[in-house]
Amino acid sequence: MKKSLRFYLLFLLVSGYAFSLAAKTPTYVGYKKCRGCHRGERRGHVANKWEDSKHARAFEALDEKDRKNPVCLQCHTTGYGRIGNGGYLEGVQCEAGHGPGSEYKHGRIMNARRYKVNRAEQHKKAVGAGLWTPSVKTCRRCHRKNALDFKKNLSDERPLQPQ
What we know:
Blueprint: H1 2-23, H2 31-35, H3 46-51, H4 70-76, E1 77-83, E2 87-90, H5 94-98, H6 112-117, H7 119-128, H8 136-140, H9 150-157
Antiparallel strand pairs: 1-2
């Protein structure tokens, strides 16, 4: 009896540890999870601006042949090559620049009240949960010299950056 109890407790401990590791691997959640909090006047209409942007329609800009081309999908989708079974999110969504959001999207981290009280501390928590801070290097993954006019496109999309 004691032996089976020990085995059961050990099993729970190991499986709980394995589950906690798996749960902390950020996954892509899609812009609709971001949109709820990042739209409207109080949030600078960030989601609304994105919905009207070329980034939102990047996948739609591809013809049928290019929608199957891995080279095109790397830049015209979000998460291509990083989502299981060859999946991806259509368009250049929030997480293309901010990283997979499953771990930082929650109200305990993305919380306007907490950001207002201590922006630096709350941002540190978000980064610790996987939030990326986009940079020119992030944009240059796709906006290369031989692609679209980088400076023009970067400035066109600048309102999507936090103020």
